[in-house]
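Structure, all two chains, one model.
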Amino acid sequence: MKVVSIIGRSGSGKTTLIERLIPELMKSGLSVATIKHDAHNFEVDKVGKDSWRHKNAGAKMTIVSSAKKIALFADSNGDSSLESLCERFINGVDVVLTEGYRMSKYPKLEVTRVENGELICGAANNLKAIVSDYQFDRGVPVLKPDNISEIAEFIVKLPDLDEPDK
Amino acid sequence: MKVVSIIGRSGSGKTTLIERLIPELMKSGLSVATIKHDAHNFEVDKVGKDSWRHKNAGAKMTIVSSAKKIALFADSNGDSSLESLCERFINGVDVVLTEGYRMSKYPKLEVTRVENGELICGAANNLKAIVSDYQFDRGVPVLKPDNISEIAEFIVKLPDLDEPDK
């Protein structure tokens, strides 16, 4: 399994890139999970649903399970690290793409548009590539955002968790 | 930790009972998680949200994590057993209340109204009590649905997972 973070400023195109990478990675037979860091107090379940009623009544965690899907809603005491989320919840997938988690140890691709200004990530953050239509000289490859197959190939070549860093 | 299932026919009042039991159990300092079996193909995340976009692009699992909450959406190949859901996802709570899961090994309370007809659960299903305004002679206590503190006490006295059955 490998964990790769797609990071960048708000509006840089992180979600769109992840949305396009998933089917591209799946074409190569890889299974993908995603983890998104949310800085806001997001609301996901639907008011009035049974699971919402359970959670709203004070349950620390509510799970809904059907033959096709599982959904889980849990309280958190502060931001969970990417490491702990992977350990607690992820198994049986080939690639975990994260949106955000700039401070984790995992390899990162930064997405940026010219209007996004300075990069937020550098070598110290394990930056492996920049995804942009513009040129950068930061000692890492610059990949074009529309060249999804190239970005997917780059991700596939990044080391797995149990391999030494290349 | 103990796992107790609230079972009963559709419309018998399972969700309402769970919704009332959670704060009652919390009054005693207990933390509660819930697991609901859903027979339908429920939709929980909101169309257009980033997490929905990840999942909809083909991710097998999508997690959203903020400082206050964690949400997880995963594919499932058939109904997960209650045992496997508990093992995979639950830790650090005192009581797990489930809505449904009649066929699990865990102790059960059946909720029933007179219009619900025959009970769906018996001694073979580890039925521990009936929650109803009507009388039943099935060798287990019959608890009144409005006497929430009595039902909560009954649940608290059920054996923990690591105790031998009482």
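Chain B touches chain A through 58 residues (CB under 8 Å).
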